[in-house]
Records
---
Amino acid sequence: MQADYHLLKKYVASVFTAIGCSDEDAALASDVLVSADARGIDSHGVARLAGYVRLFDNGRLNTKPQVKVLHETPSTATLDGDRGLGLIVAPKAMEIACEKAALAGTGWVAVQNSNHFGIAGYHAMKALPSQMIGWAMTHAAPLVTPTFSKEKLLGTNPIAVAIPANEEPAFVADFASTAVAYGKLEILQRKGLDTPDGWVQDANGDPCNDAFAIKNGGALLPLGGDREHGSHKGYGLGAIVDILSGVLSGANFGPWVPPFATAGFMQAGETVGNGTGHFLGAMRVDAFRPAEDFANDMDKWIRRFRSAKAVEGKQVLIPGDPERELEAIRRVEGIPLLNPVVEDLQSLASRFQLDFKLD
């Protein structure tokens, strides 16, 4: 199915309203989710919508959160997300980070007691209109083994950094600290395909290609796949994200991060902190050098890397290029949805008695 971008956003917002979100929060949550599909990150788009509803059904989601500041300095803050949608809590945290950066040069906000926040890049890019560099990261449920481990202790733990330029589009790096995000496994499961090498291991810690490996006791692998290909670096990146998002914020961390509605489990177990955590930041460019000079030099950086001599049939890309180019197409031509995703959306429409018109 090819869904119209605007109709899809309207429908997703109606589902969030149906579970109790305000119109304003529902519109924002819908924008975060559908932006993922528009940018080609289908694993974190509307395919996740039913998962947020399951969080609500299991009493883990507050649709009318009162987000509050627990601790702050002129350049930092820690927020309690009141079990709200991470899709709502994270943008509010990023707004505070930008406000603090406007005054202090940089602003950093740690968040506890939140939930899954969608794609990290969406939140990092919120700093760009203010000519700031944006940072966003979050930890997630333990689906990932540290290098040499058979025990799942980390999440996919993404990092995003958005850097403004002048005439060139912004540099936007948004990546998991694992070989692949769990949502990519779900896509392969729906298509009945195996995984490439280096994505997962089985319950014995041996490499495998089973898209259902996690449901069968296996795990995702850190970025790099194995020690010989640098998995210790992916492990290190994931650990940094977990510490900043969880230990620093007062949220749960490591194997105690509560699960999202994936991999066949839902209930949170033992806790050592408060909900799921995020870490967001904004850096005012002119706190370091004149913003115009920086932007012009970023243009030079981007143009030089983009013009690099490439192997035959390939082109060197700048982080953010593929997503930006695909978004320009999908906003006009529509967003492709797999049949299982359409069925989930139709099921929600039936449950909440919503109009289901996406094309």
---
Amino acid sequence: MKTFFKRTALLLLLNGLMAFDAYGQNKALSVDEVLAIFYQRNLDLIAAQYNIDQSQADAVIASAIPNPNFSFQLSELSGNLNNGASATGCSHNPGVSCGPAEYFSFSQLIEVAGKRGLRIQSSGFATQAAASDLQDAVRIFSNMVRDAYYELLQTQKNRWLAQEIVDHYQVIAKANQLRLHSGDISESDFLRVKMESVRAESDLDNAQTAVEQAKAKLAMLLRWPEQSLSFEAKEQWPTVKDLGQGLSREQLIAKALEQRPDLQADKLRAEQADKEMELARRLKYPDVTVTAGYARDPSNNALNSGFVGVSVPLPLFYQYKGEADKAAVQFSQSRLAVEQTELGIRQDVVGALATWHSTDKIVRRFQDGLLNDAVVVRNSAELAYSRGATSVLDFIEAQRSYKNVMRDYYSALINRANAYYDLAKAIGVEPTNDKASGQKAALGQQ
């Protein structure tokens, strides 16, 4: 699972960053390229946090068969070492030693009642649950990265808007200078426009600061602080695909319950707890240790002989009731966790779906005429002001209205993008931009 994510991230990174200049030139990165950087630099930490490697090691341990024991023993050590031993195979001469008694044995623990099989099944569920945890972590962290990416894009759009307004006021200021000298406008009107120009420059400074802060935030999330000033967000909006937006809430909830990795992980842990409970109940069935060996004992009638034996612990005083009760409690807790996660998924889907519909409608309202109206009002006010047909206050108000509408539009675009990805996260779908739309926001290329 971890290898799959890393290979995917590497492919995305190679496709998007072949031309990256590490010496300080800004590189416009798409959201997929930013995600690829995040996976490459953070996936090992995330996997370690969710114990992927440990769960795989636990599975190996659970499936292991107990090793046999070998023992060797010397006995009947004395001064004469069985001189003249009567055992068949020894010299019966009183002056000849037959040597000490030697015992070689092997013992093997044999688990009964299917305990090893239950451990294997339990560890298998644990490994699958850890993999689902990693999927869920990628689902959550991916949206964190996207949120930071679109926050940067929004600050960049606000900076572009602030720069456009500054440039616009500079043109107006030059024209007003000429009009002031010719007596077409009063000095107070000239100063009002000049103050608005200064205010626009302050807005541009603040917008630039916001961009740098958003870059730093995204770079820290990527664990890439050395490049925090060397990249910018590419203006690519998500290609909206059918995630089930047209389904009813109950149908969408059912889809999420089938796909959400956090719910899958909880269900797998419930299965694991069930196996652990059954394993705890079977601990009262004692395991058997079988022993077999070879003996060379001069004190016996036969010098060389073999032996076998069986040992079984007797659960007379304690029958592992505590372990069984503890496992039953853990099973109940795991089932409760499944129910709580299901309730959380229902809430996530309902909220995300409502937010998506709301943000999509808002963007459509802007694009259906409000943006064009703001431009028309501004241009009309400028034309009227240049001909002395309207007051400076009406001109300034038209400029402010245009700025506010554009800011609200950029915010609506970002909110819709985040709502789209939040809906995908709530359903448990990982959206991909096959060819992310390169369309600019309306009026964004002016």
